[in-house]
Design goal:
single chain; alpha/beta; Dihydrofolate Reductase, subunit A; eight-stranded mixed beta sheet; 4 helices; 10 strands; about 20% helix; globular
Length: about 180
Amino acid sequence: MGNEPKNDGSIRVGLIVACSENSVIGRDGDLPWHLPEDLKHFMRTTKGHAVIMGRKTFETLEKPLGGRLNVVISRSMSIDSQIPGQLAVVRSLQEAIDASRQADQAAGGFGKSLVWVAGGGEIYKQAMDVADLIVRTRVHCEIDGDTHFPDIDPDRWKLECSEEHPADDRHKFGFSIEHWIRRG
């Protein structure tokens, strides 16, 4: 104990995730579905905010996500990989939250700004105790995978709203975008 990440409240932490009905978020290092509307939702929601992710998640991207600070947690990735204002490499979730707070303050943030955690599975587990909200895309399927999103405890989290998106010619699976807020 004692190494758990802490959030002093000067920045809000949100988790943003797409997972199947059986909580799968990944298979063989990739998403097990292609949902263009959910990808647009992710881009709109995270734009202008810092996005925290693990090294493996970052490596699935072709380049850093534009219009936001990409904060990558890695024990092996070189700190020299950093690109000011676009890519920060840190060693822990706590360092990622701190780097996001500092970037927000440098950009003129007034505290209470928002940083998004975007995976992978281990980073989500670590972030559950410091998160203020969860935006979960619930993909209406059960699928095999090797990476999972932690269970959302209804004693700790309240579903605030849910928006349905049916399957169509561009989306093999229907999905719901759910907004969860921490209780009390």
